[in-house]
Write a structure and sequence with these properties.
Layout lengths: L17 H35 L6 E4 L4 E7 L3 E7 L2 E6 L3 E5 L8
Antiparallel strand pairs: 1-2, 1-5, 2-3, 3-4
Length: 107
């Protein structure tokens, strides 16, 4: 029955230096940094700038999809006019973008 199982021979074991392992780890970290971490930091920085520059009269779109015009701004909140006699108070961080003037049309 020995002819069904071939004898396993150890392949020539390579002696990689620990330095090559460090280089590979550095390359992987660099790829993660430039493909994942850096773009996310840039996006966060742009959103922080957008939130800090909000002012009365800006037309905005919230993260929930509500379109309106800002009528009041405090340190952490903005009051958004969304319809006739309807205003809501939202956290400034939930505002996803400022839309061009004239986008918000009251009925």
């Amino acid at each position: 029955m020995d002819f069904f199982i071939s004898t396993a021979y150890a392949q020539g074991a390579q002696q990689d230096s620990p330095f090559s392992m460090l280089i590979m780890m550095a390359i992987i970290f660099g790829a993660f940094y430039f493909l994942l971490i850096r773009p996310q930091q840039k996006k966060q920085k742009a959103h922080t700038k957008l939130v800090s520059e909000l002012s009365v009269g800006d037309e905005v779109l919230t993260a929930g999809g509500i379109l309106g015009r800002i009528t009041g701004v405090s340190e952490h909140y903005a009051i958004v006019h969304i319809a006739d006699s309807t205003e809501i108070k939202v956290q400034k961080s939930s505002i996803s973008q400022v839309v061009p003037k004239g986008t918000f049309e009251e009925a």
